[in-house]
Amino acid sequence: MEKLPARLEDLPARMENLPARDLVFYGGLGALAVAGALEWPVALAVGGATWLVRSRRKEKR
User: Fold this and answer.
1) How far is residue 22's CA from residue 52's CA, in Å, rounded to a whole number?
2) pTM above the 0.85 mark?
3) Residues 9-21 pLDDT 10s
4) Radius of gyration of the chain, Cα coordinates, nearest whole angstrom
5) CA-CA distance, 20 to 32, in Å (whole number)?
6) What is the number of other CB atoms lying within 10 angstroms of the CB of residue 46?
7) How is 13-34 classified by DSSP, letter by letter?
8) For residue 37, which of 25, 32, 47, 54 is within the disulfide window of CB 3.0 to 4.6 Å?
9) In this structure, is the dihedral angle defined by the CA atoms of residues 50, 26, 39 and 9, taken in order, positive or negative?
10) Which residues contact 22 (CB under 8 A, 6 or more apart)?
11) Model confidence over 18-51: pLDDT tens digits?
12) Is 30 exposed, middle or buried (0-12, 13-18, 19+ CB in 10 A)?
């Protein structure tokens, strides 16, 4: 079996640090994309933009 990149190996540890509302938000986006209510590129763009805005807000604090 091929070894995963380090950033993917650390994913479970980073997921524990996410607030529950973030997990619900991103999970909801994924569920909408799977159900066909959103196209995958739209879900990825919304999720990526949200993550970018939230991370920049945290840097400013």
Assistant:
1) 13
2) no
3) 676 666 667 778 8
4) 14
5) 18
6) 16
7) HHHHTS-HHHHHHHHHHHHHHH
8) 32
9) positive
10) 54
11) 778 888 999 999 999 999 999 999 999 999 999 8
12) middle
pLDDT for residue 47:
93
Q: In the structure encoding, which two tokens stand for residue 59, read together?
A: 């840097």
In sequence order, the 6+-apart residues with CB closer than 8 A to the CB of 29 are 38, 43, 46, 47
Are the CB atoms for 40 and 33 separated by under 8 Å? yes
Single-letter amino acid, residue 35: A
**Would you say the C-alpha torsion 31, 8, 5, 2 has a positive or negative sign?**
negative
Q: Which tokens belong to 41?
A: 């590129």
Torsion of CA 3, 15, 26, 4, to 10 degrees: 0
